[in-house]
Design a protein that fits this description.
With 196 residues, the protein is mainly alpha-helical. The chain is built from nine helices and no strands.
Length: 196
């Protein structure tokens, strides 16, 4: 009997679909069945790849999103922190606009929901790691361009926090105005940090 193994592409499609679903509806409002359906994957293969269920899939979706954003950020930060900031803002602008203000950040969505138990879920730990990674990339670039270490760390945290919050505001207001206003102020702060 010939049995084919599910392809790595199928697993990634499920993870990407889960990230998209969480970015739109949040984690608690999304079942693993809905994530599988959204990814056009059989529920059986979803459990094959993620035998621990919804939390395992959500954790992978958060990690995937984190690395997807980090790859783009790393590339743009090669040209400096202002370019990195613009790319970070542009990436989230595209997501909210292309989804007609229905999607935000799955990392934020996982972070703000009440965990199902008293234990810290793996998805929440992954979200903290992702935020730390984005902050580190920004802070390192700021330092490389003349900012002091503590100022760079604080500004990187401000950038990530402001952009995440602004994405939520854009969804609520169904407008990119909050993103435009935030972009202008953050760019001024970054320029001041690297010039000073």
């Amino acid at each position: 009997m010939y049995v084919t193994k599910p392809s790595p592409a199928a697993r990634e499609r499920i993870v990407v679909g889960a990230a998209d679903m969480i970015s739109r509806r949040g984690l608690n409002a999304t079942s693993i069945r809905e994530m599988a359906k959204h990814a056009r994957a059989p529920l059986g293969s979803t459990y094959h790849y993620f035998p621990e269920g919804k939390q395992q899939l959500a954790t992978e979706a958060v990690r995937y999103t984190g690395e997807w954003v980090a790859r783009r950020l790393r590339k743009e930060l090669e040209a400096g922190p202002v370019s990195g900031l613009r790319a970070f803002l542009g990436l989230w602008r595209k997501i909210v606009v292309d989804s007609d203000f229905r999607a935000g950040c799955p990392v934020l969505a996982v972070s703000i929901e009440e965990p199902p138990t008293d234990e810290t879920p793996a998805a929440l730990v992954a979200a903290a790691d992702v935020f730390y990674a984005w902050e580190s990339l920004l802070a390192d670039s700021l330092c490389e361009h003349g900012a002091e270490r503590e100022q760079a760390a604080q500004l990187a945290t401000l950038v990530v926090a402001a952009v995440e919050g602004t994405v939520a505001m854009c969804r609520a207001k169904r407008s990119t105005q909050p993103l435009d206003r935030t972009a202008e102020q953050l760019q001024a702060l970054v320029l001041a940090a690297v010039k000073g």
